[in-house]
Amino acid sequence: MTFKCRASALGGLMTRLDKGGLGKTSKKVVLNAVLFDALGYRRELDAKMINKGLLLEGDAIKAVSLLKAVTMTKNTERRSNEWFSGECDLLTDDSIRDTKCSWSIDSFPWTHDDAMQRVKDGGYDWQGQVYMSLWGKKVHYVDFVLLPTPHSLLGYNDDEYEHIELVNNIPLQKRIRTVKIEYDEKLIEQAKERVEFARDYYNQLFSEISN
Known about the structure:
By secondary structure, this protein is an alpha/beta fold. It has helices at 10-13, 24-39, 48-55, 57-68, 112-122, 124-135, 160-168, 185-210; strands at residues 5-6, 73-74, 79-80, 84-86, 90-91, 96-102, 139-146, 176-182.
């Protein structure tokens, strides 16, 4: 097996090196790859925030399509090359888009600076670079969308008024915040180098776990 980094994990792999070697976060990314490649195991996130995004994905796409006047196609193809693999979310004629449903009013990025920070913290910038590389696009958009939370996801401590009525009272155009990421060949080259650098550690772990 040869280590390829999933687009969603590249942000973790690109964290700072520790004394010339991979840092703790990068090593965790490699370990997760080994667990999947050697054992077929991948930890599935089962949180209400994740479930909201899954349940409201269609509504989020409709909202972005309406406000941005853009036609998007749901992608179901997974692509890979020598270094990366990934399955982007949405495609347009000239770009890639990814919708992120915010859990609540206070977790939605109300300012551009906040949205940019969310993109960096989540590794969505690196993820977008991989998608653009694999699909030959020059622009990737991350659309943060705030929609009412389904009743079925609300817990004992969740305020129904704040999650539903109050959200509905906010104009839709204020509940979408978009970050634009442009393709950067230099960043892709840096990412390729990091993947190649991590392969020795991957091989070591794969040998220990699979044998």
